[in-house]
Hints:
The structure holds two protein chains of two kinds. By secondary structure, chain A is of the alpha+beta class. Helices cover 51% and strands 15% of the residues of chain A. Chain A has 13 helices and 14 strands. A five-stranded antiparallel sheet of chain A has the order 4-3-7-6-5. Chain A has a five-stranded mixed sheet with strand order 9-11-12-14-13, covered by helices on one side. Chain A has a two-stranded antiparallel sheet with strand order 1-2. Chain A is rod-shaped and about 160 Å long. By secondary structure, chain B is α/β, with parallel strands linked by helices. Helices cover 41% and strands 23% of the residues of chain B. Chain B is built from eight helices and twelve strands. A five-stranded parallel sheet of chain B has the order 2-1-3-4-5, sandwiched between helices. A four-stranded antiparallel sheet of chain B has the order 6-7-8-9, covered by helices on one side. In chain B, strand 8 (139-142) and strand 9 (145-147) form a beta hairpin. Chain B is globular. The chains are: A alpha+beta, B alpha/beta. The interface between A and B is medium-sized, with 24 and 26 residues.
Amino acid sequence: MILLLVILGFGSLLRWQMHRLQWEHVETELLACARILEGSLRGVSKALIESLSQDLGFPPGPLKPPPRPADGKRRPPPRPPMDQTPKLHVPPDNSQSRKPNETSIDWQNIQEPDLDAQTEEKWESSLRLPKSFPTPGGRTEEAAYFVIWREDTTILSESSNAPQVKPNRIEVNDIRFLRERYVIQQRNQYREVFVRGPRDTMICVGRDVIEEERRAQRRDLVLFLSGGGVFLLGLIGSWWLSRSATKPIELMATTAAAIGPRTLQKRMDLSHVGTELAQLGTVLNSMLERLDVSFRQQQQFTADASHELRTPLTVMLTATELALSRERSPDEYRENLEVCQRSAIRMRQLVESLLFLARLDSQPESIEKQSCELKKIVNETVLQLQILAEKRNVSLTTDLESATILGDALQLARLVTNLVQNAIDYNRPGGSVRIELKHSENRIELRVIDTGIGIASSDVPKLFDRFYRVDQARSRQIGGTGLGLAICRSIVEAHHGTIDVESTLGEGTTFVVRF
Amino acid sequence: MRLLIIEDEPDLLKILARSMREEGFAVDMADNGPDGLHKAKTCNYDTIILDWMLPGMSGIDLLEELRREKKTPVLLLTARDTIRDRVTGLDRGADDYLVKPFNTSELLARIRALIRRTTQHATNQIELENLLIDLGTKRVWVDKEEIPMTAREFAILELLALNRGQLVSRTMIYEHIFDENDDSLSNIVDVHVSHIRKKLGQDRIETRRGLGYIFHA
Lengths: 515, 217
């Protein structure tokens, strides 16, 4: 639409400009002719003009005035061909450049009161127009015609080729005529210029402009066709451009639309995409990569959680099925119930841990933050775990500085419990666990150091993953859920801290929490 | 029939073993991968019930290792339930796949199906002239009259009937009928066979001295 408007606007402007130039050219010619005639009339006395009308009648013909029709109207003379223009009219080299005072009027004869036929002829012979007008194309156009009126609008003189349609005489008295000194009008195929001449005469010079009109029509047709062509080309070009610009976007959109939860591993092909779009595509691809990783982690977590929940559930179902398959002794029932209870307890631990993690995941910022004395929390935890440590023959020692942090006391207690309990569970008989709480470089540092079995360096990166167990058998024996360290990490991150591990296989492990 | 259960969850292992024993199977147990593989390689089990996630060695690795030496039917009993897991398990050598939690009767039916497939029997029923043995319900009829049998007697009869026409050695009977914890006397097989002969007729089971028994169809 914009292209169409631009072409229409530009085409109209061009057409208007060309028309203006063409008509300006014609009008300049006509005006020049009018001025030549005006110059010729200037030297003629008013008396001569009036007498000419008496002697010559109305209107005077240039050579042989045609007989007037019965109705009194003057029949115009046939338009003679160019070579039949009045013989006394000898065109100068370039009549356009001619000035009025250069016209060859026989001034002596005119001034003489002797108005014989020879004088009239001489006078009339001075009223002439250039034979032809040079045109920009080099061709010559048919000569113009003229008509001169007296004050009383009777015709003083006219050229032999003046057309049948006479100039509108009222127009010569038009106010514009007086003000602008000349009037231009188009009458059918004639273009005419009206000029006020000397001795109250009116001069009209006109010319057949049908050829100009035809040229203008041809030019309009060419303009229209070339405008249409440009519009068509523009349409094709813009379609091609927009297609080449939108095709990569379409491809990207198709790929993006095809990506679902099961096809997150798909990536956008950026081999045929421009730089700017490739940048966008790379960003989208890296976003997909992150989503894919996160989604796979989530899937793995769900699979692991369901696996972990299924095991105790299977035990409970199998035990109850066995117990109910036939009559049992009270001891057999008791044994089966104990199995069920153990499995139920394990399920409860697992469900609680999962819920705890889910809460931390969904609203990590929503933890209750109050001033907590970490030393007090550690001491209470150590007190609770003392019995377990004694049972496992592990000594518990502490080196604690007073440290206060903003956080959730229950969660912090869970963090310390998990770390210390792990240190006891994965220790050797006769080993030790040391808990240190110190200030270090504007940070609070909690260290849980054990002399246990240690962790292989290959296991360290996965240690805080959910359901990751270094030794599955041992974990089962201890009754771990595989979520303890994952919970620790979530609690530490919710408190804007960090947790790290340093370990040597067979020598021991140190967990370092920094707040 | 003798089974090996490889499962790391101690309660489940115990309960499963008890269930299988009550169904007349001799059951061996292993609670980790390497132990399970060792037992699977050294003894001819009728079926192995194998967990996927095991300490020491995963069930899948164990299966691959076992398949290099033996064709013992293996049923994977695992909590991993995705299609991909099932395909992986079956492709890597398992004969059947059952997801936890399971129904014990379904597990038993699958074990029976595995044993049938190994001994090339189409159904649970073995019909030989006037004798009808139902392996599913563990009942025996002679001339349409049900013959009461103990679990051990039925187990020996089942083994002999499934391998009818072939020599079944005493060792083979020991291997398939008694588990690792059974310390029965060595002549216990002869005693049970003698009881079976009394119930079904003397001609059914032929004794080859020093070699074993042949069950005649």
